[in-house]
Design brief:
two-stranded antiparallel sheet; alpha+beta; about 160 residues
Length: about 160
């Protein structure tokens, strides 16, 4: 999502929605992070093929709310978590055994991610992540887990 204020100054006039969209698409297609080598296999992390870039305009806010950094961060946090809850195919409860996945009606992609979180959760070096406890949520402990570790909620840290 992009923040584009209706009020623009000469110093930001060059930053059009189209230019920012192109920059985001270029950055995500080029971004790569080398992950750990586990059991002789190297892992590289990249963005997936699905990328949803949308402008956020002043009209998107109710009650004439000023378009501040904090307002945009709250807006992004709201829709990022809403999208994660509705689109991921997560389960509504923790699993106790991997075999439970065969009985649940979830997407094959979610099933693979849950299975991966479960498998990684058995590794002693990853025990502090509690991946098995959170496998039903694709290994993710909730919207604030990363930010809270650093002393802030995501909406205020963006």
């Amino acid at each position: 999502m992009l923040s584009t204020s209706t009020r623009s100054s000469a110093s930001t006039a060059w930053a059009t929605t189209e230019l920012l969209t192109d920059a985001i698409r270029a950055a995500t297609s080029a971004a790569r992070i080398d992950g750990p080598e586990i059991d002789g296999w190297s892992h590289t992390f990249v963005f997936g093929r699905q990328l949803d870039v949308r402008p956020i305009r002043s009209a998107d806010f109710n009650d004439g709310q000023e378009l501040t950094e904090r307002a945009v961060a709250a807006y992004i946090a709201k829709y990022a978590t809403k999208g994660a809850e509705t689109a991921t195919g997560t389960l509504d409860r923790p699993i106790r055994f991997l075999a439970e996945l065969a009985q649940d009606r979830i997407t094959e992609h979610a099933r693979r991610v849950i299975r991966t979180a479960w498998t990684l959760g058995a590794r002693s070096e990853l025990a502090d992540l509690r991946l098995r406890a959170w496998a039903h949520m694709l290994g993710f402990r909730g919207q604030g887990s990363l930010g809270e570790r650093h002393g802030c909620a995501p909406a205020t840290c963006m």
